[in-house]
């Protein structure tokens, strides 16, 4: 087996730059399913759903971050993840997710078109899943 | 002519004012540093956002599928102005500069027969614009309770604007804020948000023309991206505003402190003169009294 190459990964939220460095592997929760990005990935642009990003650094260290939506720009030599909001997984508070779930529910009550309802329901389901992952029951 | 006691009181009160302005200046300086840091931390995101947006816009550009937020409604009859100002005063001409730019813009639009709607972000802009355009203000956003402007605040405003657009409430949206150039110079700026002008494609070394896989398709991503970009622009404007406000407040308070210093010097001189005059007068009274004996 060939050793995995490294590539540059950046995790950016509007408030700050969370990660910038050389990594060997990143798992991102893309809208159409989780995907693992490694070096020399085909150029891809994808949207992100709320979920957990797992970053494996070159030295084998692993970091997990919780992101709430956003999108990723993947090129063979790097990957940039623009998250609407991102927090290190061990700092995330369950009431933060609960708050978002409540906000989404309130929005659902006001949604007019079916499309809108569908969008919010999907978002809600993703958030609930995320809550299950992050908060140990 | 104020009496000696009056002068003494005034000196004391000016000194107290000077203490306050000095403290405010110091607070503004500390907050300015934080605001500048926040603005800098937000920069990578908006830069990458523009780069990505430029890439996608290029890919989608020719299609008719480009979202309406980007192409606009094809009219420019109804204008929405989002005017971002500070929540507090005491920062020199900062708020009035932004308000003046918005006012001139409004007048020009009204004169050419357009309809104008205004959304005020921040209390000070609302106070100024209310005098002239009270009937045009459709909404106001209050950030007074917000200690630190977060992306959530900007996103909320962004959603509001997009919601209005989807209801067909306006055709063109312009954002007014103050660009932070330096501590002493903030430039009031108007930025068109809708129709979104796609940033000019940046020639990247990574080969921006690479053929991308889009997941879901490019149109859907673009549709998701543009509202987000609007929020990002608003966020940036808010951050620049905070930095500008603090910069303006710092120099305003610096001036005030200096003025207070000058005033104290003048008053003290006056006070000493009067004191000496009184002493002289009393001496003359004693001497002439003694001579009369």
TrEMBL record, chain B:
It is a peripheral membrane protein. The keyword Transport applies. PROSITE patterns: ATPASE_GAMMA. InterPro entries: ATP_synth_F1_ATPase_gsu, ATP_synth_F1_gsu, ATP_synth_F1_gsu_CS. It is found in: Cell membrane; Membrane. Keywords: ATP synthesis, Cell membrane, CF(1), Hydrogen ion transport, Ion transport, Membrane, Transport. It comes from the Bacteria. SUPFAM superfamilies: ATP synthase (F1-ATPase), gamma subunit. F-type ATPases have 2 components, CF(1) - the catalytic core - and CF(0) - the membrane proton channel. CF(1) has five subunits: alpha(3), beta(3), gamma(1), delta(1), epsilon(1). CF(0) has three main subunits: a, b and c. Produces ATP from ADP in the presence of a proton gradient across the membrane. The gamma chain is believed to be important in regulating ATPase activity and the flow of protons through the CF(0) complex. Belongs to the ATPase gamma chain family. This is ATP synthase gamma chain. It comes from Shinella curvata. The lineage of its organism: Bacteria, Pseudomonadati, Pseudomonadota, Alphaproteobacteria, Hyphomicrobiales.
């Amino acid at each position: 087996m060939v050793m995995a190459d490294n590539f540059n990964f950046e995790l950016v939220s509007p408030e700050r730059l969370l990660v910038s460095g050389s990594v060997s592997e990143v798992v991102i929760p893309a809208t159409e399913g989780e995907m693992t990005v490694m070096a020399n990935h085909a150029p891809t642009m994808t949207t992100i759903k709320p979920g957990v990003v797992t970053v494996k650094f070159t030295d084998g260290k692993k970091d997990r971050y919780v992101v709430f939506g956003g999108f990723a720009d993947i090129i063979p030599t790097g990957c940039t993840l623009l998250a609407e909001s991102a927090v290190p997984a061990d700092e995330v508070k369950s009431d933060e997710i609960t708050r978002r779930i409540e906000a989404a529910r309130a929005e659902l009550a006001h949604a007019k078109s079916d499309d809108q309802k569908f969008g919010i329901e999907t978002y809600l389901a993703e958030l609930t899943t995320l809550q299950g992952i992050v908060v140990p029951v | 002519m104020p009496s000696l006691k009056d002068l003494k009181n005034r000196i004391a009160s000016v000194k107290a004012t000077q203490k306050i302005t000095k403290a405010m200046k110091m607070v503004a300086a500390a907050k300015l540093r934080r605001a500048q840091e926040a603005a800098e931390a937000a920069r990578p995101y908006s830069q990458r956002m523009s780069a990505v947006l430029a890439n996608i816009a290029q890919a989608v550009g020719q299609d008719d599928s480009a979202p309406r937020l980007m192409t606009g409604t094809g009219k420019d009859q109804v204008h929405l102005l989002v005017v971002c100002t500070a929540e507090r005063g005491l920062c020199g001409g900062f708020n009035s500069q932004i308000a003046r730019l918005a006012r001139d813009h409004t007048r020009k639009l009204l004169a050419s027969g357009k309809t104008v709607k205004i959304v005020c972000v921040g209390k000070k802009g609302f106070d100024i614009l209310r005098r002239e355009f009270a009937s045009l203000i459709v909404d106001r956003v209050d950030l007074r309770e917000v200690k630190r402007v977060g992306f959530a605040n900007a996103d909320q405003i962004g959603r509001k604007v997009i919601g209005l657009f989807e209801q067909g409430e306006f055709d063109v949206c312009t954002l007014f804020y103050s660009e932070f150039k330096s501590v002493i110079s903030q430039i009031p700026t108007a930025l068109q948000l809708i129709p979104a002008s796609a940033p000019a494609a940046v020639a990247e070394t990574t080969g921006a023309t690479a053929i991308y896989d889009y997941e879901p398709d490019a149109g859907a991503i673009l549709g998701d991206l543009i509202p987000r970009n609007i929020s990002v622009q608003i966020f940036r404007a808010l951050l620049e505003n905070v930095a500008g406000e603090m910069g303006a407040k710092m120099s305003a308070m610096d001036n005030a402190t200096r003025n207070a210093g000058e005033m104290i010097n003048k008053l003290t001189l006056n006070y000493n003169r009067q004191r000496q005059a009184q002493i002289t007068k009393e001496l003359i009274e004693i001497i002439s009294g003694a001579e009369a004996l």
